[in-house]
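Why should sequence recovery work at all? Because a backbone constrains its sequence more than one might expect. Tight turns favour small or flexible residues, buried strands favour hydrophobic ones, and helices have their own preferences. The token representation captures these environments compactly. In the example below, the structure is given first.
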């Protein structure tokens, strides 16, 4: 269970980016965070793995507060939190399987990581995850040769090999064509169910959020204005969230 309580963050004095954000997410839940540009979605996501130091509140994963963790504890927390990025963050000149194996770096000494020392078991797991994301025939291709949708599936396999409890996806489909976006959302939903994950994605595509997410969190000007089952996202809520009529997005 992930519990966020009264999260606060200001980048500049008297200009709060997040005010009193609280929500709970159960394992096996695919969550979309929606809201206009500048609402605070990225700030929430980055606070969850402490890439951004928030100002106050609690972020409790399975009963332990990430915010009070020391350096070593934070390293262990971060192993449990995979990241999927809009621009994939792959090493383009390396092969697909090498990029997936990079997800194991949090478990290794710096030296073992530098020399790319991976066990047979890790390599086999990387292959089996590539199969799971539909890329078993691409293991030895360079990432630079892949399409955007394929790169994102490599990014997802890389996050899974960490054995995460939580996957944070920052605009995972923003750079993809509609068909690839659909595939990636389907994959995230399927993996969330299969691995009993907490998967949280920042999204601008409301129709995708409604179609694939179990739970939707709506953020407006740093405040939480909606936190319900995706089915309950209504036209009224969207008008409040975006300050305008964007209900055609739901069609
Ligand atoms: N590094 C920073 N320094 C100062 N202000 C920042 C910084 N990062 C974000 N902000 C401000 O914090 C607020 C929330 O930004 P955030 O990036 O979290 O919004 P967002 O909902 O993710 O937006 P988008 O959908 O455009 O990515 C905005 O007012 C933004 O200008």
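From this structural description, the recovered sequence reads:
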């Amino acid at each position: 269970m992930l519990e966020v309580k009264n999260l606060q963050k200001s980048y500049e004095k008297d200009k709060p980016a997040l005010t009193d954000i609280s929500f709970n997410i159960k394992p096996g839940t695919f969550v979309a965070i929606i809201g206009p540009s500048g609402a605070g979605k990225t700030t929430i996501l980055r606070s969850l793995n402490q890439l951004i130091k928030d100002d106050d509140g609690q972020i409790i994963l399975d009963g332990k507060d990430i915010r009070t963790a020391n350096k070593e504890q934070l390293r262990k927390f971060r192993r449990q939190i995979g990241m999927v990025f809009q621009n994939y963050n792959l090493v383009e000149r390396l092969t697909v399987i090498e990029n997936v194996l990079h997800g194991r770096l949090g478990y290794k000494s710096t030296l073992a990581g530098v020399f790319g020392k991976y066990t047979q078991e890790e390599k086999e797991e990387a292959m089996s995850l590539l199969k799971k994301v539909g890329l078993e025939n691409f293991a030895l291709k360079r990432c630079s040769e892949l399409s955007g949708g394929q790169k994102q599936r490599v990014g997802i396999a890389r996050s899974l090999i960490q054995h995460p409890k939580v996957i944070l996806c920052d605009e995972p489909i923003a750079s993809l064509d509609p068909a690839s976006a659909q595939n990636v959302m389907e994959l995230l939903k399927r993996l969330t169910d299969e691995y009993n994950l907490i998967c949280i994605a920042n999204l601008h595509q409301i129709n995708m959020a409604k179609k694939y997410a179990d739970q939707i969190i709506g953020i407006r000007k740093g405040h939480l204005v909606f936190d319900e089952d995706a089915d309950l996202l209504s036209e009224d809520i969207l008008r409040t969230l975006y300050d305008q009529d964007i209900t055609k997005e739901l069609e």
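A few observations help interpret the result. Residues 11-12, 17, 35, 37-43 surround adenosine-5'-triphosphate (CB under 6 Å).
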